[in-house]
Here is the input.
Amino acid sequence: MSRDHLKGAMAAPGPRYEADAPFLELLARGAAAEAYDRPVLLARAEGASGERIAALEHAKLLALRVRSELEGRRRREAELSALFETAHDLAGPRDVDAVLQAIVQRARSLLGTDIAYLSLHDPARGDTYMRVTEGSVAARFQQLRLGMGEGLGGLVAQTARPYVTDDYFRDDRFRHTTTIDAGVRDEGLVAILGVPLTLGPHVIGVLFAADRRARVFEREQIALLGSFAALAAAAIDTANLLTETRSALAGLERANEIIQDRSAVIERASDVHDRLAELVLRGGGVHDVAAAVSQVLDGTVEFLETAPAAAVEASRTEGHAVRHQQDWIAAVSAGGELLGALVLRGHPGLDPVDQRTLERAAMVTSLLLLARRSAAEAEQRVRGELLDDLIEARDRDPRLLRERAARLHADLDATHVVLAARLDAAAPDADQEAAARRRLWSAASHLAATRHGLAAARDGGTVLLLPLEPGDTATELARSTALHLGTAVHEAVTVGASAPVRGLAADPDTVVAAYAEGRRCLDALRLLGRSGEGAAAEDFGFLGLLLAGDRDVAGFVDRAIGRVVAYDERRGTDLLRTLDAYFASGASPARTKDELHVHVNTVAQRLERVGRLLGDDWQSPARALEIQLALILHRLATPAPH
Here is the structure.
């Protein structure tokens, strides 16, 4: 209706104006469309003239046209306001999910639909998936995925054009699938409108509005939803650009961090190079190297002669530091000989340059050790000469022997053990055998120097004179020496030890006898197939009496039956005589009780007590033989009663 026509209608005099009045009032208070029929119905009920009723009918039509135009303007204002607010959200720093959620909510509100939702394209899978829903109540519908051409949304994504259906399940323009239809049916949808989200020529998703009843979507509503779709696409594009920008910035920051880190690493490498060079020039030791590297690597570095064998071997084979649990280990070796390892503690994440620093420190450590070894070889030869003199008893002046030993930081008045060591593996040729013996002598000399002892190459093997620490035994020293030397030369080393000896300076013949005893133990180990082990005479039971140089009968008896002897002495019991009778009667309790003139239960009780004192295996063949021999020796050593 034109503005002039409206003015003319409102300015008409007489009945026409009277007919317009009730409708103007309805327009003024925004009455519903149904209320405009009431003036006409009321006039007919009152019996108004035909002219009056016709005027009212004409005025009603004009008022409804005005009402429709006003509603359209209000709707367009609301739509424009919603679009403006959405564009404002898009321009702000809000999260893209929040913007998409706002778009779907406003689309549902302005179109007056039961549900609105948005799906996005998944390039990896080649389909679309639900991103945002508003008003949905069905979980299966919210998790739908639509392939290209599947369902109404798949058709929109495939053609990049809007599609609308008044009745989804009766529309055959798109391909129905069991999964999609089940989701739509769960949601109870009937009428669906879908418009594409496009970025340039590419469809990146679909925006939907749908009702659970039959409905016809007008062109204005399709255009409005298309406007929201354009805003959603812009929001997604903005988010993608922002993500790419942030990723690029993060990459630049990371590159800058790497550059700074590399610079710091290079500075540390230069620092450690200068420190190591200074240490070499001023004759520093291996622990000085470890301390310097500890400061540079900001950790704790130690030099160990014995480290985890598998890790050290891997490092020696590969020529690089290797990780072991939370530590790093770099082997320190020279030629085929392992000298030890540098261990970086509690530093599992090690930069490659720092790893190289640790490896370089290990190399410098090996050079320092070789330099020290070269300087110490003369001292080792002196140690060997002193031990040779003690074994051959050439210099019998105790004062001179003590002075020579003191210069080597050895104390000949302390308790010592003489150990005979030999490699077990046969070398392929004489040269390799000589090289293996040199490695053994070198390792033994190093051990002797660190333990304030002596070492010499002798009789195809090596002999060591090592002080015995308090609480230690000859057996324990023999075993630890075999393990240490075997680890150092990477071959099995067998070690035989003498009993502890004292007063070496005053009586050099003691060393001669102890060395002979150590060699007999060494030969016994090899004959018994126990190569690679360490043992003393006390480890061989009664055979030890034959091996020991001093024939320690009392010690053997004490080890075999000493607890029974002591028990008899304390309690006044007769366990020893019972044992004698038991073995003499062929281990028969019945004959034993006849021999002793006691009840058989008494014999059983005494033998049970013996078992508690000597151990459950006292009747095993080997133990029984030792016990019988000890009983004989004890009887021979005990004065006969007068």
Remarks:
- The two ends are 155 Å apart (CA to CA).
- Residues 43 and 189 are 45 Å apart (CA to CA).
- The first strand starts at residue 115 and ends at 122.
- The mean pLDDT is 79.
